[in-house]
Amino acid sequence: MTAASRRTPASGGLVLIIDDVRPLAEQYAYDLERLGGFRTRVAPGGAEGLDFLTREVVDCVILDLEMPGLDGFDVLRAMEHGEIDVPVIVYTGTGNFDRCVEAVRLGAFSFIDKAEPMERVVQEVRLALRQTDLRERLDEMEERSPGASPLIGESSAMVRLRNEIGRLADIPSPVLVLGESGTGKELVARELHRQSRRSDEAFVAVNCGGIPEGLVDSDLFGHDRGAFTGAIKARRGAFERASAGTLFLDEIGELPGPVQARLLRVLEGGEIVRVGGEQPIIVGARIVAATHRDLDTEAAKGSFREDLFFRLNVHVIHVPPLRERGRDIDLLAGHFAASLATHLGRSPRPVSESALTELRARRWERNNVRELRNTIERMIIASDGPALDLGHVPADLGSMATGATDPRAGSAGAPTAVPLPADTADATFQEQKRAAERTIVLRALDTNDWKIGRTARALGLADHSSLIKIMNRLGIRRG
Length: 479
Hints:
Layout: E1 14-18, H1 22-36, E2 39-43, H2 46-55, E3 60-64, H3 72-81, E4 88-92, H4 97-105, E5 110-113, H5 118-144, H6 156-168, E6 175-178, H7 185-194, E7 203-207, H8 216-221, H9 238-242, E8 246-250, H10 257-269, E9 271-272, E10 281-282, E11 286-291, H11 295-301, H12 306-312, E12 315-318, H13 329-343, H14 353-361, H15 368-382, E13 405-406, E14 411-412, H16 429-447, H17 452-458, H18 464-474
Parallel strand pairs: 1-2, 1-3, 3-4, 4-5, 6-11, 6-12, 7-8, 8-11
Antiparallel strand pairs: 9-10, 13-14
């Protein structure tokens, strides 16, 4: 999920109140719902609050500093350690505002006194949500700025890709973007939007593979108040939020069958009905869908609707894998070395010729451009010298060029299959797929010390919220 798709409203967001004094916390929750229109949850302590933050998508936290066990400072440190990027408002009843100032130094958005009028608390929550909204809008503007064009490369494959995008940018029909994981399918979708006459309208991206099955309808089509338990107010779905802009449906091959049928009706009729609603709503967003799957084969097997496939398959863009863009590796490596150094607070350093030779030898079959980016980030962190050198190239990159061997790894670099649990041998395809996904996510979490934000980036997800949704869908929780 990207910034445009998860933008937090000034009201209606989910506020988590972490306080060991239950009556006070519940009174805060009641008043925030009544006066601010927020959704609320209450956690009776720091440990419970952290557990909730790793399981659910929260828009703002109100945190008591004085609690037994894990106090507010412990929670702030744990959120920073786990890279859980949610604005926190701390409050105290002791009148010791020096502690509140210390909490702000640890990353809290602001602080209030428990005796403050609730109108002031509501205003503070709205300010926190608006700051999040502003930061995400700025990120989106930077992505759309001419100087930040994502399609870097001079290879013939990239020239063809840019020409194809220019040819299709202004057509209103759906476009299907195909390519391996990590090739930049969302960047292609954003470039289609940027070059179109819709560029001043919204770009909304939805990761169809990262939404729990029970929430797909609500995320895409919205819901009316009372449509299901917890639907305390109406919510616009992705189609409505995209309005006359572009709706990007990433990993569309992961959509459940019933949702595929409803999506087909939207493409044919140009209108939606919210979950629990009756009134049709006309929508005008242009659809760009993407997948790494072979939808033709999936349709033949019956796991993807053939009629929906034909609807989407009118205009197709194939994004080339990095191994077909050999001459672009130098450009990409130099771009990542400069941009990531600034992001990581390091001085920009060039990539040495010996390191580039090693990078060119890799086939990058695991995660393509995203894998190269992550590799350069690891090299920057590992290096203190004047350049990123051969010795800084990680030895565990995976597959290399055919016949090549990594002398540091001591083995040929053939692609490694994801090991499945032994008890899936007789399982169905869907069961084995779920088991493989669990293995991938658990391995990434273990590798990254269960830091949600870092793991999300390592897996190429948009943010920590996307990973939390996938973990919920797969039933993954830290023991």
